[in-house]
Amino acid sequence: MANLLNLLNERIVLGDGATGTYLYELGVPVNHCLEEINLSQPELLARVYREYAEAGAQVIETNSFGANRVRLARYGLDDRVSELNRRAAEVAREALQGRPDVFVGGSVGPLSLRPADGEFSVEDRKAIFREQIGALIEGGCDVIFLETFTALDELRLALGVCEELSRIPVVTSLAVSEEGRLVSGETFPEAVKALREAGAAIIGINGTAGPQACVHLLSKLAIGNGDLISVYPSAGKPEFYEGRFNYAASPQYFADTLPRWVEEGARLIGGDYGTRPEHIAAMAAVARGLKPVRLKKIVVEPTRTRVETAKIPLARQEAGDEEVSILELMKQKPASIVELDSPKGLAMEKFLAGAKALKEAGAAAITLADNSLAILRVSNFAAAIRVRDEVGLTSLLHLACRDRNLLGLQSEIMGLGTLGFRHVLALTGDPAKVGDHPGATSVYDLNSVGLIKLLAAMNRGVNHVGRSLNGRTNFIIGCAFNPNALNFDSQLKKLESKLAAGAHYVMTQPVFDVELARRTVARLKPLGVPVFLGVMPLMSSRNAEFLHNEVPGIKIADPLRERLRLCADDAAATKIGLEVAREIRDVALEAFNGVYIITPFLRYEVSVELLG
Fold first, then answer.
1. Are the C-beta atoms of residues 342 and 351 closer than 8 Å to each other?
2. CA-angle at 215, arms to 145 and 10, nearest 5°
3. Which CATH class name applies to 330-611?
4. CB-CB contact of 154 with 172 (8 Å)
5. For residues 51 and 221, what is the distance between their CA atoms, to the nearest angstrom?
């Protein structure tokens, strides 16, 4: 068999179309694990492979896109990774017997990690890719397709694993927004350049863009001699009807558009979501008469004037002023921010009185939790508006990933930006099942790191898929850190990943031990970012036992809990709680000129004492 790279250097090569959406069309249930079909219905897969080859495809991809350990675990199949991938390749080889002119490509998708999947180091992720790719190669694949990747770093990681395991060709394919940007922030040309430097032989796009969008994206690339580009467009945007996704782009439309992809430098051309053998057959009739474009220059567009952040007037500020940055304020004087939960019901009077008292006591801002511990409260967004309009105090809003999907999160963030709020704390959020509405659904489209990246992208003027916002937000992005964790070093690594994602400052869980406070300061100070150490005065022995035993992320040392147990009454316990809180507050202010005071049970008068 000829080498695929040599073939691409000579002429246009056709790939296949979609496997997943075609299998659904052939009767596989929508929620069924597609990769399981490799074992239970190999004859159906063989039919799909043969139909694409007969239509004119010279490269057939295996049914293994999501067959990595993490994604298969969602179906209870994580112990069958090697078997499923090897069998995917073997079924293709068997189906294509007598067709030496057709290459078998092993399909490998991104890991698609979710917060519920746990933490994975770089070595963990390499091992996951190595397990899948190794089995595909063992099954007889001629080429590996790393496809539909939205993050450049993950794609480069997978590419490195391929190069460790074999010298067979690798197609690196990006899922780019129609505006030409990856979720990880890079533009399509920037990502292509980085992949070329990493040694990728074939680079392209697939998955998210339709035929015309692919023409537009490819038009941004300069083509040099030897540059091999692939394009696998989807058949337009789907319509969901009667339990199925329907795609509008016809085979003839693909055939009519194919010469334009070739003009822009594409050499390996197939189809993605919604395409069928008919699409490949229609393109095959056109592709025979086309020759590859070996050189293409692009016209550099004139640099546009940078979009400035909108200046949105705030209540009690002069028009045109922005919300004052707490981080700038703490460079001039000690800054105390105080958590004051919004109420569980509609009565707002005590909450607003507390915000007013805290302002008068010198609080730089109040922080508003986002249904912390999954307990229902008044929207912190609405509470922040009332605090700004009726009290004139800055609010730092916690933003959790639990309750909103990716669309809802972005809409909320854009709303915060248009109303002039700047201070946010990005959190994954406590699962709904631990709160007072255990039947509620936790969403978790993102985790805290993903949310930080999203906020940073909006500060650059683009949304999650790279589409321009026609302006920029100006958020000061915070992240959380838990000093009470059993493995402090592990928490520190997580914190470093949050800072690398774009966080500007750190807020910690409450610390109840002076020595732990000093140790936390010593470890976080070298990071060179503002840190607000959490301080929460204990009110009683019952309060301490509840926090220690029932609240995630909080631990209270035995000696302090014993001191509180021996108190004659709650008043004596509160006095001890305040003494310890003051010591920890002083450690925080000395190190960082800022402190995070957490108000217990909405008893804002206790926080007022700590502000004194």
1. yes
2. 55
3. alpha beta
4. no
5. 33
Q: What count of other Cβ atoms lies within 10 Å of the Cβ of residue 579?
A: 10
Q: Which helix (H) or strand (E) holds 166?
A: none
Beta strands in 550-610 (DSSP E): 594-598
The per-residue pLDDT for range 316-351, each reduced to its tens digit, is: 333 335 789 999 999 999 999 999 999 999 999 999
Average pLDDT, integer, range 74-80? 95
- pLDDT digit string, tens, across residues 114-173: 877 888 999 999 999 999 999 999 999 999 999 999 999 999 999 999 999 999 999 999
381 backbone dihedrals φ, ψ, rounded to 5°: -60, -50
Please state, in angstroms and rounded to a whole number, the distance separating the CA atoms of residues 479 and 457.
16
Pairwise CA distance, residues 31 & 67, whole Å: 15
The DSSP result for 15-41, as a single string, is B---SHHHHHHTT--TTS-GGGHHHH-
Distance CA 403, CA 380 (A): 13
Instruction: Give the tokens for residue 297.
Output: 């220059």
**What is the spatial distance between Cα 17 and Cα 104, in angstroms, rounded to a whole number?**
13
Question: How far, in Å, CA of 422 to CA of 474, rounded?
Answer: 6
What pLDDT score was predicted for residue 600? Answer: 82
Where is 283: in which H helix or E strand?
helix 277-287
Cβ 425 vs Cβ 478: under 8 Å: yes
For helices 448-460 and 488-501, give the axis angle rounded to 10 degrees: 20
DSSP labels for 47-104? HHHHHHHHHT-SEEE-S-TT-SHHHHHTTT-GGGHHHHHHHHHHHHHHHTTT-TT-EE
In 525-576, which ranges are E strands? 531-535
Alpha-carbon dihedral angle through residues 344, 345, 350, 356, given to the nearest 10 degrees: 70
The identity of residue 531, as a single letter, is V
* Topology match between the domains 4-287 and 330-611: yes
Rounded to the nearest 10°, the torsion over CA 372, 373, 377, 378 is: 20
Q: Are 469 and 444 in contact (CB under 8 A)?
A: no
Residue 225's pLDDT is 84
pLDDT in tens, 483-507: 998 889 999 999 999 999 999 999 9
Give the domain 4-287 fold. TIM Barrel (3.20.20)
pLDDT band at 111 (very low <50, low <70, confident <90, very high): very high
Tokens at 509, concatenated:
């869980």
Q: Which residues contact 333 (CB under 8 A, 6 or more apart)?
A: 593
Residue ranges per structural domain of the chain:
4-287, 330-611
